[in-house]
Q: What sequence folds into this?
């Protein structure tokens, strides 16, 4: 079959960058009378479909919020447990983030609360750090202020105001995914299918019901709104007012996404790469792409200012890449003119120029700022994932006046396709990033089932394509799929909602109560990062280290604190801990005697290798590893007189 048979025909005038999708053009012609007016019946049906689709979108979003809130309540019996148990349920870094919400609420005034965050001396012992600069906690600040000024204290406890806000954002998330799929396919049935897939694949699409305060649960709904707005922006023939309003939505959602997640720069970089690839292949209008670059840079710089000129944002590849593309565009203005070889040469030089400028700008910024906060992320990616050259190449044809050319995808579909592919690569490298990819897979898969172009291609390949058949199959297959999914998954969802559990962790509750009752408020604690976040939230005591890992000095400090699980002398460990102002150290048997992971992957094994010591247990060791002169500190000190067994799996030393 000829390529031209399966591609959508568009028309381009020489010197004028207009992409008209034949499908949309024909549908518009059908609904227009000879005098240029749209038939009233077509208008009414369009409005009716829009209203019904909007009601379905809002209903699904609200149902998703209620669904995850019910799962959270049923899993923990959250309404019936004590306050300390509720706080302990916010595990690891979740507890750290929630502690700043609690701190703002307990402050005598908003000004004092902000001052305490900017001059914090409890999160890291012997240091005064700016929490608003170091961490993305503006959402906790905003929510605490909102709780104070709104008349909701009589009806909602602070913790419920917090978690209901996060569950409410899930409604926004689902609605945004629904709208994106609707925009791509042209039918809200596709949005319904995308939302349904998101819900039934909840384990792989979200973890909000058990890790509520995680930054991704704040950020991803805004990111989904941004993608929906960009998908709409890339449609041809937008009215100027609609385009300006869409750009405003893109900017606000980009800004809120960047403000609420510390990994914003990597998502922005992927998005910029998608725009760059498609613009280089002449699949997107350059003017809109340039506006999106400017929006990205503006949003990131604004977040940088709000985070007191956070160096990690300034030194991000996203800013360097966007600035480099904008600079390269001012140097090379006419990339899409001339013959085939001329255009390929210009494209090669443009890509080379952008890459060189990106490296130069990024290295210059990092040298000036002496930035090393994000080096662990790149080391992790290099160890986990090998980046190679992209696959495929573009056959660019010279365009004469009124000459026809072909494209395979609409701009919005092409943008979402490359987005999904790159997110899939990111998910392969980092498990937590799969939640970003799977939700977009739901959108793109539903678009594929409801796409006129896809079914037209399939039917044309077997010589059965007619407009009537395409229309019938376009609606029949998604409806059949929804009925099948409902039949298969609905009983399981009802069973899941009927399961009742209860939070139960008496050991940790006893530990927190003992700390509050038997230690001074100025005491500093050392231990594992995940447990110390709970110590700060439940007791308000000072920490030596914590789970927020985007700081080099904190990573070095954590490595030193973790020598409590290494083969070190008690005197050496004592000197190290006292250098950080530590008063108490919490030793956990689950770390000291860990058996979940294989030999070589346990924390104590990693410490032994880093210290040049032979690992415990039967197995091979590297030739350069030597026996330690001392037993493991945690095993030794837990049995001495200066240790208090405050819970069966935890020892408190002082």
A:
């Amino acid at each position: 079959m000829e390529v031209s048979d399966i591609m959508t025909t568009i028309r381009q005038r020489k010197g004028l960058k207009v992409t008209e999708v034949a499908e949309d053009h024909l549908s518009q012609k059908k609904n227009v009378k000879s005098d240029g007016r749209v038939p009233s019946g077509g208008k009414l049906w369009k409005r009716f479909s829009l209203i019904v689709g909007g009601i379905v979108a809002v209903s699904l979003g609200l149902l998703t919020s209620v669904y995850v809130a019910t799962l959270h309540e049923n899993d923990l019996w959250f309404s019936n447990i004590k306050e300390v148990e509720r706080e302990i349920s916010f595990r690891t870094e979740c507890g750290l983030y929630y502690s700043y919400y609690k701190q703002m609420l307990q402050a005598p005034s908003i000004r004092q609360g902000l001052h305490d965050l900017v001059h914090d001396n409890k999160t890291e012992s012997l240091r005064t750090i700016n929490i608003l600069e170091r961490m993305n906690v503006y959402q906790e600040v905003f929510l605490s202020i909102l709780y104070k000024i709104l008349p909701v204290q009589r009806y909602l406890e602070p913790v419920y105001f917090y978690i209901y806000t996060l569950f409410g954002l899930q409604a926004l998330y689902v609605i945004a995914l629904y709208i994106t799929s609707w925009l791509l396919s042209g039918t809200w049935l596709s949005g319904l299918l995308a939302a349904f897939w998101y819900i039934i694949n909840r384990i792989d699409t979200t973890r909000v019901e058990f890790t509520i305060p995680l930054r991704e649960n704040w950020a991803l709904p805004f990111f989904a709104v941004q993608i929906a707005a960009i998908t709409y922006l890339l449609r041809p023939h937008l009215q100027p007012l609609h385009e300006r309003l869409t750009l405003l939505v893109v900017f606000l959602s980009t800004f809120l996404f960047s403000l609420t997640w510390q990994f914003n720069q990597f998502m922005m970089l992927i998005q910029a790469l998608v725009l760059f690839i498609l613009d280089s292949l002449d699949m997107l209008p350059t003017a809109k792409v340039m506006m999106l670059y400017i929006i990205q840079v503006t949003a990131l710089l604004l977040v940088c200012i709000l985070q007191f000129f956070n160096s990690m944002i300034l030194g991000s590849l996203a800013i360097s890449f966007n600035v480099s593309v904008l600079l390269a565009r001012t140097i090379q203005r006419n990339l899409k003119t001339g013959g085939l070889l001329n255009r390929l040469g210009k494209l090669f030089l443009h890509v080379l120029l952008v890459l060189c400028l990106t490296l130069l700008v990024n290295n210059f910024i990092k040298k000036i700022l002496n930035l090393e906060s994000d080096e662990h992320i790149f080391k992790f990616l290099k160890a986990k994932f090998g980046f190679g050259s992209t696959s495929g190449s573009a056959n660019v044809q010279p365009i004469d006046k009124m000459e026809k050319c072909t494209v395979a995808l609409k701009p919005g579909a092409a943008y979402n396709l490359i987005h999904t592919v790159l997110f899939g690569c990111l998910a392969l490298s980092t498990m937590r990033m799969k939640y970003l990819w799977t939700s977009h897979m739901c959108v793109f898969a539903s678009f594929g089932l409801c796409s006129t172009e896809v079914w037209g291609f399939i039917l044309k390949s077997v010589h059965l394509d007619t407009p009537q058949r395409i229309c019938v199959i376009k609606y029949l297959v998604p409806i059949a799929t929804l009925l099948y999914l409902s039949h298969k998954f609905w009983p399981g969802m009802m069973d899941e909602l009927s399961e009742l559990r209860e939070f139960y962790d008496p050991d940790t509750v006893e530990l927190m109560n003992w700390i509050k009752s038997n230690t001074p408020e100025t005491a500093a604690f050392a231990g594992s990062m995940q447990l110390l976040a709970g110590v700060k939230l439940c007791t308000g005591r000072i920490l030596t280290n914590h789970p927020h890992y985007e700081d080099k000095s904190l990573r070095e400090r954590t490595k030193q604190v973790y020598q409590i699980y290494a083969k070190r002398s008690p005197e050496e460990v004592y000197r190290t801990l006292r250098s950080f102002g530590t008063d108490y150290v919490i030793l956990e048997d689950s770390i000291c005697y860990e058996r979940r992971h294989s030999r070589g992957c346990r924390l104590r094994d990693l410490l032994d290798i880093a210290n040049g010591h032979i690992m415990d247990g039967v197995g091979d060791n590297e030739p350069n590893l030597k026996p330690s002169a001392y037993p493991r500190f945690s095993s030794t000190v837990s049995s001495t007189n200066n240790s208090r067994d405050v819970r069966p799996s935890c020892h408190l030393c002082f």
Residues 8 and 407 are 6 Å apart (CA to CA).
